[in-house]
Amino acid sequence: MPHDGRARTGFPVPEASEAGAAVTGSPPTAPQAATSDRALVFAGAALTGLYTTGAGGDELQLLESAGGVSPEYRLPQRLSLSGGSAAAQAFRADRPLWLNAAALASYPEGAPTPPRARTASLGALPLASGGTRLGCLVVVGASADGFDAGQQRFLERYADAVACVLPTEESRPPGASPLSHALRGMRVGSFVLVPDTGLIEADEALLELVGITPDDFDGKADTLLAHALPEDMSALMSVLEPSLHALGRRELEFRVRRPTGEVRWLSLSCRVLAGTADEPGQLLGVVTATQVKSRSADDVSRIQWLTAALDDAVTVGDVGRVALTALREPLGADRVALADVRDDRLMVTLLDPPKPDAWPELWRAQWRSEWPDAPVSALPTLQLALRDGRMDLWPAGTALEPGLAGIGPGGLAVLPLPAKGSVAGVCVVGWDRPHEFIPEERSLLTATAALVGQALKRAHAHDAEQELATMLQRSLLPRRLPELPGGIAVARYLPARRGLQVGGDWYDVIALSEDRVALVIGDVQGHSAGAATIMGQMRTAVRAYAVEGHPPDVVVSHANRLLVGMETDLFATCCYVELDMEEGTTLLVRAGHLSPLLRHPDGGTEEVQVEGGPPLGILADAEFPLTAVALTPGTVLALVTDGLVEAADLPLDAGMARTRAALAAADPVDPARMADALLGDIGRREDDVALLLLRYDGMKTKPIRAGWVVWRLPDAVMHARRFTARTLRRWNVQAAADAVLLVVSELVTNALVHTQGSVRLDLVLRGNRVRISVSDSSPRAPAKPVIVDWESTGGRGLLLVEAVSDASGTVPVAGGKQVWSEITVPASDPVAANARL
Q1: Mind listing the pLDDT tens digit for each residue in 632-662?
Q2: What angle do CA 381, 387, 393 make, to 5 degrees?
Q3: Which domains does the chain have, with CATH numbers?
Q4: Mean pLDDT, to the nearest integer, of 52-75?
């Protein structure tokens, strides 16, 4: 049940005095406002209206209004987008429009209606999400002076929150309006305190921030204060027990300890409401959560906070965000830019606000890249500051070069960021309105620049280390996977989220021939530079042994003996799969690794029972038995490492079951999305993760094969030519016979003359190409003649083969080599569709 504070404390939401309104710009009254609207009342909003674009797209329609139950102000139900209302103008310009009472008088269309509209102010904030304009948020204030800077920032955040929830109607709780749901999503709590009685009305958002359930709250301020840290209690009491003559706004950062033990930083902003003869004075305030400790009222506390925050900043981006928090809001700045100095060039790392139209025209051509005319010499103002290493403050109206014009028309601060005798970067802070640089502010800027410069230097070293680790990892893994006939392979790798982000997991897809492919996945013990080095050596060794043509068990055995002979104490696990893309038969070898997973075409999954051997690098004479599995088209083969299926809080069996469930639920039409679905929540990562998927589709065009063992007889070449001629006639490709017979003669002759042992001739017809392969037992590649002239008596055979072939080459195979040639069948002699061996 929602808790209504008035039911327990017995007093209504306070009415603000005229004096309070004059000081803070807030509405003079807040008659019985709902607790969900109290934060808007504090922000100076007497009425809030949500306009959305109509069905025709030519007008704005009032979808909802909130704030103040009495009809003191009213807004029109419809506003033309082409009209002269403030909402329409803000919508068209796509930027907020703030009007005090005097400026609002020039916008009669769409203004709030009487009786007191002439003393009202107005804010119009466009709403957009994902590049789509959704409408406009109109905020009416009761003060003729308009909204102050703090209120404007809060209402701009509120407009962004409304724009986020407006398109997602199905995600809102039943009956929740976009205005109230957006305010709740901002996690803004509010309260009304009567200091004389100690009673406080707190909404559910505030109770949640502190860590109190509504049923456990007794309506007493002491209950809330009990959660504050003792060292912050004195400052809290000075704010919550103010003199009722101090009617201005008060702000404070403090910490609370939640029931879970978590320490949370909260930001408090409140103001005193003078009481009447019948009612005591009251305190109206709002509380929000902050990501890091924000600044205090005095400069010493600000520097202490900045030092602590920068100590936790790791990357350059972290340093930029802390610098932005330390400078923009405390100084009331409108723009903050942070840039690195690299080789006399400026590289922008942070721009706030992140909108191109907020920065000079010259910056837009290279938005979020280098500054225009990136050399430092192109910006004399920055060049002077960087050369002297001294802060420069430029007052309003200073004429600056085009690259800086418009950043700070009301004042510009250029802060070099010193670090260990050099300048790590530069920070530029700009104001739109005239800004006076007081001495205390100058000291704060100088101290901030020194701390940010040192942190930026450390962050650069960290980023360089991580970039080096990333480059090392990427260089050791395949850049891209080969295109496979009859299947699609995809892979994913994620480094560990602790320590050096480089590990020992690897994967590879090796095209052994036009119809055979090897898939391998492995994991070297640990995740360090040493593990990555061993991983690279093992991946290279496995690929080399596989390309030589060894069967899977021999490939893994060779890799095992290689790792045993290395000077390392690390071991590795491995799963090797050789797949015949034509027939769908697979041979699997497992060395201490997880078993592969299969997803069948009907959606069922299984863990393949592969008889395994020990991990690589333990026993030199270890045996690695083969396991054969047949795949049908539509089957998905998944190879994973233990980082995906095992963690401190995830047993291996549970992880494998979860991965199988994700594999069954994923759509195999897109293997890339299937791999992403198997990764799941990438945030939970104690170890590096490798994933290799292959969707086997089967070859649409199966090759036709014929083979002949060449006996070492005087007429062996003649028999090889006769076998070839018969085969070509049977395949109905006689038009290519002359070229094919010439290649067969030359390759068989070379094998018989220059090698010993067995010789084999293989013919393959795939589509409109004939492949001739001659295998022998010599590992030496055939040598081409260096000089060929009229007196040469040999060496012309390979030149003839190259001349008549569309492609040719030599590949090593187990126990020797294979010399091959491919010849295209002329179009006039199409391949018979029903050709048979």
Answers
A1: 999 999 999 888 888 777 888 888 888 898 8
A2: 45
A3: 32-168+175-182 (3.30.450.40), 187-293 (3.30.450.20), 309-467 (3.30.450.40), 477-533+544-696 (3.60.40.10), 704-785+792-824 (3.30.565.10)
A4: 77
